[in-house]
Amino acid sequence: MPAPTASPSHATASPSPDAPESVDVLVVGAGAAGIGLGVVLRQMGLDFVIMERDTVGSSFRRWPPDTRFISPSFTGNFFGLPDLNCLTPDTSPAFMFETEHPTGADYAQYLEILAEFYELPVAEHTSVGSITPHGDHFTVVTDQGPVTARAVVWAGGEYQFPKTDICPGAEHAVHNTHIKDWDALPTGAEFAIIGAYESGMDTAIHLARRGHRSVIFDSGDQLRDPRSDSSFSLSPYTKDRYRQFASLITIHPHSRVTAITADNGRFTLTTQSGDTHLFTTQPILATGFTSSLTQVAHLFDWADGSPQLTPDDQSTRTPGLYLTGPQVRHDQVIFCFVYKFRQRFAVVAQSIAQQIGQGADPAVQAVVADYQSRNFYLDDLTCCEGECVC
């Protein structure tokens, strides 16, 4: 099948079928994880539907215009090195949008194009209310009526669930995802940013570009983390941008904020050491997101805040319920970037095909072989334990 192409100005609409009464595979969420998995299910010829409470890629459309992917896009597909931000081996956001770091709007359009090109059955504006297992099938209650499915894949994202309850008084702060216009912030002020990972640094950089100073409160020492895995350390893209504006950004390492108080437009931050810091602008939370799995948390076992999964990403508590996307974690291997969690799409789809009795189908085996040959199939997680030597 040829790869989809489109000019950056070309917008497409994804299909929106009515929710079926019964289906083999029901995928919850039409973001990057849901669409990427959907392409594999379509190529395998499986019976499925993707349910999305809003529209395809809607979370990406909520990104502020200045926010971009930190992982670089580059078209190396013809050398067997797929674009880090692509969801299929034969597509490239870099080629499609002629940019190295796509915006959220770019990526939402990319998802729409994939959904149309591969004719994915996406039921938009369909909310999932509950999922109930019954041995060999599930009853999924939606606002369009109940659906029976033999397997369910949770592909819900995190962006719509900002983490705000971090300490007493956190209600006095604003989460960085709720700032839609950086130019509307008061000029000539200094801002407190709580959190020093990618979103905290990105916030400081947006402010610095507008001449604002900021103070970042880092619970660890993110800037000097020695690990090469960007799930733990800052990306080179972020470090490059930080160096441009370092004179406007102060970082307090090992300074976890334990309380925020507000009095007449003045905000006091207290850290774990007992130090206090006064600001005249509302503190900004760059504290990441909570799991979208809250709705179905009872269907998973949990340890250290992470859902427990089998080697093929099924819930250890509820067979037939799968997880795909940035919330997948196996011990210290975190699949929080597109180039990571896309490696599991064919693993999950193959397991589902075997579960519903189609694992021996030639189409299924052909897709698995194709994804394996293109380095899009990761089932041996021991390969993720090394560090770069220099």
Could you describe the 3D structure shown?
With about 400 residues, the chain is an alpha/beta fold. It has two domains: about 230 residues, FAD/NAD(P)-binding domain (3-Layer(bba) Sandwich), CATH 3.50.50.60; about 120 residues, FAD/NAD(P)-binding domain (3-Layer(bba) Sandwich). Helices cover about 20% and strands about 20% of the residues. The chain contains nine helices and 19 strands. A hairpin with a 4-residue loop joins β4 and β5. About 5% of the residues have low confidence.
CATH class of the largest domain: Alpha Beta
CATH superfamily of the largest domain: FAD/NAD(P)-binding domain
The chain-level structural class is: alpha/beta
CA-based gyration radius: 22 Å
Distance between the termini: 40 Å
Query: What is the CATH fold-level name of the largest domain?
Result: FAD/NAD(P)-binding domain
Question: In percent terms, what proportion of residues is strand?
Answer: 15-25%
Count of DSSP-assigned helices = 9
